[in-house]
Task: inverse folding
């Protein structure tokens, strides 16, 4: 965590992550992360391997940026069904239950395909995103992060 307070539901427990806190989630462990405050949250996320998750985040971000999400910022049902099928190897939604998700995805995905919906929007795949350096990391956090990378590289 760099700034703000993040709520994390991890392996059945709910935690609060403050600046300087590190949260590690092992593959296959159910977790939810959200900003439960009115304050802006900034965090660094590292995923290994991360290519598929990066593709998913890009799709979600640009879908929201294009105004094609619901009031809570979630993809609309047809798009969500396509994303669930495309990225089933990478992410599983924690709600609704997995069986319900599979049933809904199985019903909605063919409709979505006929309607021309895709999980990987071609415009999103190749769109250049701006690099925004919002602020430098606090020295203590930067040292911890760079130290971790140095140790893990050995």
Result:
């Amino acid at each position: 965590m760099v700034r703000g307070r993040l709520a994390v539901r991890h392996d059945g427990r709910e935690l609060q992550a403050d600046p300087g806190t590190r949260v590690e989630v092992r593959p296959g462990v159910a977790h939810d992360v959200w900003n439960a405050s009115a304050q802006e949250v900034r965090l660094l996320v590292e995923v290994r391997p991360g290519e598929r998750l990066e593709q998913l985040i890009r799709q979600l971000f640009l879908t929201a940026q294009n105004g094609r999400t619901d009031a809570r910022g979630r993809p609309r049902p047809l798009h969500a069904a396509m994303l669930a099928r495309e990225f089933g190897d990478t992410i599983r939604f924690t709600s609704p239950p997995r069986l319900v998700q599979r049933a809904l995805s199985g019903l909605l995905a063919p409709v979505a395909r006929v309607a021309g919906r895709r999980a990987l929007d071609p415009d999103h795949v190749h769109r250049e995103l701006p690099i925004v350096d919002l602020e430098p990391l606090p020295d203590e956090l930067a040292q911890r992060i760079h130290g971790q990378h140095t140790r893990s590289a050995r």
Remarks:
- Confidence is low (pLDDT under 50) at residues 149-154.
- The chain has five helices and three strands.
